[in-house]
C-alpha cells in the first residue's frame, strides 16, 4: 500500500492546528539510519486507509516528496469525539532486520466444526491478533485460524496454529486463541434427554 506524504518544517501546536485546518495530518517517520523526519499526510486519504485492516499490518510504501521508503504504521492518535486523525507515526523498515508486529487473526470454518455442527457450541475468539517477529518480506497480512476440527469444550492454543514460513510468535507462553463452549441451558437439556432414554 502506498502513502503519499510531504516534509514539513513548521513545528508546535499552532502549526499543527493550521495543518489540520488545511486538510493534513502531521506525522513523523523514525527508525533506521536516517534522522527522524516530520511529515504531513492528506487527512482524508489517511482516515480511509486506517479503516483497512491491511494498513495496520503491512509494509507500506511511504513516498515523501517523490522519494519512497518502506515503513510500518506504528501509532496514530484520533480526536476524542471528532472524526479527525490528530497525528501519525511511521517506522522505517530495514529489509534485513526482523520486525515485531501485531498481525490480525482470521477465523475460518467454525460453522463446519464438530463443536458447532453437533453440539451448537459457541466459539469465542480469545485473541484477535498475534504478536509476531519476521523479516519484512515474510510479513503476512493476516494469519488464518482453521476451526474445522475443534470439538465442544475444547480450546485452540498458540502451539496449535500453523504460522507462515519465516514467521515466529512473540510469546513466552502458549496462550488460548479460541474456545468452543456449549451454552449452560443446552448442556442441561442434553443431559435431561439422556436420562429419559
Low-confidence residue ranges: none
Terminal CA distance: 61 Å
**Domains (count):** 2
On the 0-100 scale, what is the average pLDDT?
90
Q: How many strand elements?
A: 13
Known CATH architecture of the largest domain: Beta Complex
Jot down its keywords.
13 strands; 2 domains; 197 residues; RNA Polymerase Alpha Subunit, Chain A, domain 2; 40% strand; 21% helix; 5 helices; Ribosomal Protein L25, Chain P; elongated; alpha+beta
Q: How do you describe this structure in short?
A:
With 197 residues, the protein is an alpha+beta fold. It has helices spanning 12-21, 43-49, 53-57, 114-119, 184-196, and strands at residues 2-7, 24-30, 37-42, 60-64, 67-78, 85-92, 99-108, 122-125, 129-134, 143-146, 155-157, 168-169, 176-181.
Q: How would you characterize the overall build of this protein?
A:
The protein has 5 helices and 13 strands. It is α+β, with helices and mostly antiparallel strands. The radius of gyration is 23 Å and the shape is elongated. The longest helix has 13 residues. β5 and β6 form a beta hairpin. It folds into 2 domains: 91 residues, Ribosomal Protein L25, Chain P; 98 residues, RNA Polymerase Alpha Subunit, Chain A, domain 2 (Beta Complex). The strands form 3 sheets. It has a 6-stranded mixed β-barrel. Strands 10-7-9-12 form a 4-stranded mixed β-sheet.
Amino acid at each position: 500500500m502506498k502513502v503519499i506524504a510531504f516534509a514539513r518544517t513548521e513545528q508546535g501546536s499552532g502549526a499543527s492546528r493550521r495543518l489540520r485546518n488545511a486538510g493534513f495530518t502531521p506525522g513523523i517517520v523514525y527508525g533506521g539510519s536516517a534522522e527522524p523526519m516530520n511529515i504531513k499526510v492528506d487527512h482524508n486519504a489517511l482516515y480511509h486507509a486506517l479503516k483497512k485492516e491491511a494498513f495496520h499490518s503491512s509494509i507500506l510504501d511511504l513516498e515523501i516528496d517523490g522519494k519512497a521508503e518502506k515503513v510500518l504504521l506504528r501509532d496514530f492518535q484520533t480526536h476524542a469525539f471528532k472524526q479527525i486523525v490528530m497525528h501519525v507515526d511511521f517506522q522505517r523498515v530495514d529489509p534485513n532486520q526482523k520486525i515485531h508486529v501485531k498481525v490480525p487473526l482470521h477465523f475460518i470454518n467454525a460453522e463446519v466444526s464438530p463443536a458447532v455442527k453437533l453440539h451448537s457450541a459457541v466459539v469465542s475468539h480469545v485473541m484477535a491478533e498475534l504478536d509476531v517477529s519476521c523479516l519484512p518480506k515474510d510479513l503476512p497480512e493476516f494469519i488464518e485460524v482453521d476451526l474445522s476440527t475443534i470439538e465442544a469444550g475444547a480450546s485452540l492454543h498458540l502451539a496449535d496454529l500453523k504460522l507462515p514460513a519465516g514467521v515466529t510468535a512473540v510469546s513466552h507462553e502458549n496462550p488460548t486463541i479460541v474456545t468452543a463452549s456449549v451454552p449452560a441451558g443446552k448442556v442441561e437439556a442434553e443431559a435431561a434427554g439422556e436420562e429419559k432414554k
